[in-house]
Amino acid sequence: MVRTFIATVGCAALVPAVANGAPLQYLSGAGDKAGPVVWLTWGLLLISMAVVVLISALLIGAIWHRPGQAWVKGERTALLPHGGGLNWLWIGVSVSALVLLFSVAWTVKVLAGIVAPPQRPVATIEITGHQWWWEVRYLGADPARQFTTANEIHIPVGQPVRLKLDSGDVIHSFWVPQLAGKMDAIPGQTNETWIEADKPGVYRGQCTEYCGLEHARMGIVLVAQTPADFQKWWAHQLASPAQPSGAALAGQGDFQMRCGGCHAVRGTEAAGALGPDLSHLMSRGTIASGMLPNDPRTLRHWISDPQRYKPGALMPTPELSPQALKDVEAYLRSLT
Ligand SMILES: [Cu+2]
Predict the structure, then answer these.
(1) Hey, do 123-238 and 247-333 end up sharing a CATH topology, with the first three levels equal?
(2) How much distance in Å is there from the Cα of 211 to the middle of ligand 1?
(3) What is the pTM of this model?
(4) What is the pLDDT of residues 60-100, one digit of tens each?
(5) CATH number of 247-333: 2.70.98.10, 3.40.50.300, 2.60.120.10, 2.60.40.420?
(6) Cα–ligand 1 centroid distance for 288 (angstroms)
(7) 3-state DSSP percent of the chain in helix, strand and coil, to 5
(8) Start-end of H helices in the chain
(9) 219 C-alpha vs ligand 1 centroid, how far in Å?
(10) pLDDT computed for residue 120 by the predictor
């Protein structure tokens, strides 16, 4: 009784969650690539549900309608009345085979249809998985227009974007469910795929290959923008951040010394690659691989004690005096 109640409430809660475009949902898509995959998902889901319902009905029917209950008395032949029951076996096997063949054919057709994008990709993004964040490199025909960022990926709407995936340590897997495009990121190997979004918005993704302690906190934020906004964003990311002043300038010194071995800020001495590029940190809505909001309070707490939020994360707790911490924070906040 209680269990039925919980299940009913659970299902009822699921419906609005899906309708609201809950994070990581895969029951609706937003692009040329995700469309056929979402249809397939629903199709296979409904076929499976129909099979469960049909089999349950047949089973209940059979239990209800025991042929004369003859076998109870030891008359085994009653199980296959008149020897005609075998036909049902053939019918059952044939129907199952047809349904399975149809599902396979549909799956193969969808997979073949989404291998290549419908038109030439407008941009190529190189994504490298790290424990437990994503390095994101925008490649262009012109090397002078390439830059590196982290964790938040921007793409233009209505245009396919090529993704080149690899890993700096263990196997990760890149997945933004609403845009499809699930693909493993494997060390020493470049896997290519593509994604496309048809409306502007923020799509959530997640590493989907267990990669160690903080795997669950290795999210992805994908921002789809109009092509004009995307170009503006690209130009801004490409530029070096403005020269700091005041407390931020003092903080820059500490940053370069204590953090610059792991983090890069374009146009400065900080050029580390063990952690996310922070050149335009303030243009990102989240930190810690999409897991924490990038607001002043969280940022301050993160740089004083990252292990509190992501135990095991490969950023050690910085040993900075309270004043130096304030200055470094002011510097980070100048990285717009
Ligand atoms: Cu992972």
Answers:
(1) yes
(2) 4
(3) 0.84
(4) 988 887 655 555 555 555 555 555 677 888 988 999 999 99
(5) 2.60.40.420
(6) 14
(7) 45, 20, 35
(8) 2-19, 34-64, 86-113, 227-238, 247-258, 296-304, 306-309, 322-333
(9) 9
(10) 87
Quote the ligand 1 centre to 328 CA distance (angstroms).
Answer: 30
Q: How far is the CA of 27 from the centre of ligand 1 (A)?
A: 22
Residue 5 CA, ligand 1 centroid: distance in Å:
35
Of 2.60.40.420, 3.90.950.20, 3.40.190.10, 2.60.120.700, the CATH number of 123-238 is: 2.60.40.420
| In contact, 150 and 130? CB cutoff 8 Å | no
CA of 95 to the centre of ligand 1 (A): 40
Pairing of strands 172-175, 133-139: unpaired
CA of 140 to the centre of ligand 1 (A): 28
Considering only CA atoms, which of 214, 201, 25 is closest in space to residue 134?
Answer: 214
Q: Ligand 1 centroid vs 20 CA: distance in angstroms?
A: 26
Copy the structure tokens of residue 222. Answer: 């994908």
Query: Domains of the chain: which residue ranges?
Result: 34-113, 123-238, 247-333
Distance 18 CA to ligand 1 centre (A): 24
> How many angstroms separate the alpha carbon of residue 167 from the centre of ligand 1?
11
Q: What's residue 89's pLDDT?
A: 87
